[in-house]
Amino acid sequence: MQRRFMTLPRHIQEGEKLHPEATGELSAILNQMGLAAKVISLEVNKAGLVDIIGFTGDKNVHGEQVKKLDMFAHDIIIRALDHTGHFCVMASEEEEDIIHIPEKHKIGKYVILFDPLDGSSNIDANVSIGTIFSVYKRITPDDGQPGTLEDCLQPGVKQVAAGYIVYGSSTIFVYTAGHGVHGFTLDPAFGEFLLSHENIESPPVGNIYSLNEGNYKYWHPGLKKYIKHLQAWDNSKKPYKARYIGSMVADIHRNLFYGGIFMYPGDKRNPNGKLRLMYECNPMAFIVESAGGKATDGNGKRILEYQPNDLHQRVPIYIGSKEDVELVEKFISEEEVVEKD
Description:
By secondary structure, the protein is of the alpha+beta class. Helices cover 30% and strands 22% of the residues.
């Protein structure tokens, strides 16, 4: 009964009480993201009934065709946040440059970066998609002046909060402020996010692997051996199950509960992988690590320790259950030693 009435705003407020120094601004930001998520969820659920699916005819900074729902989500998040007085600057995967706060609004001390609709290539097929966001404190002087690119290009360890929303069979909002990971399910009967998954903890090891095996021929030899290892039978948890949705937020959400590993490696064609450090990898790494998991580039470097040099920088990522990530790193490093010898 207690959980039934634990709404997202109430949970955020209860957490705020544990930090006497809190100003309430971060709580307000998370609440506004919850509002944006409700609006986007409503529109996602109308896909196919209204003129919201398909392409706009434009291409984004990555050269990809822009979906109408991508731009809808992008615009809704900006409209939900730019007037709050909490931000000095914003950035979106859909925009090449930083997004300035309109001059008529107060400038704040926070920075937000977001992927408005992860997995949007799945929209027309009614497959789970999501929103990802990441919040930092500005590092330029908090003097009421607009933020800069420098404020956005911070390593992931500087995040003060991160979250994602999955739009699937239900709409789920998952967030962390660095002290536990909590999930809330949108109750459509009265339009509130209710606590459904308290203190989510990633299993130390799983039996699911998620990656695009169509790129197999271009992979590092160590990764090829690792996948063959997972597919072998040894009367334990193996062979692992292959589960790949093609929507990072949905794949990681599943593995966060069941255990397992999601991988988007660098390969011969894309040495740095294809996922964006600032909009996808950093926030998801912060969430997974806060739940006891691990996120690296496959060569021992923690994703959260990357110093970004570009808003749209790409990095390889291996993320999920701690032991699964450590094992793939072992296969990759051992193969590199063999090649050197």
